[in-house]
TrEMBL record:
Similarity field: Belongs to the cysteine dioxygenase family.
Origin: domain of life: Bacteria
UniProt organism field: Actinomadura luzonensis
MF terms (GO), sorted A to Z: dioxygenase activity
Signal sequence coordinates: none
Matches recorded under InterPro entries: CDO_1, RmlC-like_jellyroll, RmlC_Cupin_sf
Pfam families associated with the record: CDO_I
Keywords on record: Dioxygenase, Iron, Metal-binding, Oxidoreductase
Name of the protein described by the UniProt record: Cysteine dioxygenase family protein
Amino acid sequence: MNTVVTAAARPGLDPLVAEVSAVVARRLGSRRTAYAVADVLRAHPPGLDLLTPAERAGAPDRYASHLLHAEPDFSVVAVVWRPGQGTVIHDHVSWCAFAVLSGIEHETLYRDMGDHLRELGRADNRPGEVSGFAPPGDIHKVTNISDEVGVSVHVYGADVSRLGSSVRRVYDLPVG
């Protein structure tokens, strides 16, 4: 079934979806697709008006995800993080490209060593910064370390409306 889910009309979403569709149709492979979609986000970054004021406020108890568009080959999701909110250590079901619109997303990267995780590095992703990645090697944790609400737009190479989440696995191994 080729079901396409798109949330209410949002400024800038239709051109983003069209450009991502064109990239995905090229069947470049996971890593190259993630980087090419990151280039799309760099060239045409979405604005905060992609979300309503209520959506941009976030949720008091955890970060909030807003599915903006989904089809069989990719989904567009906005993530809203209040100060201090973050994820658990996890990886993904598919490639991903993201753009930070506000806040500072502190990302810690890990490698699975079997019985523990090893920290590989850290990055502070600031507004205007864009990146892409693909499994394997996408184990990370993200936290908004700024004093403002953080918003980022993520494009995943999977239908998150069908899967329910972009997360493949949550890791509770010791870090050392």
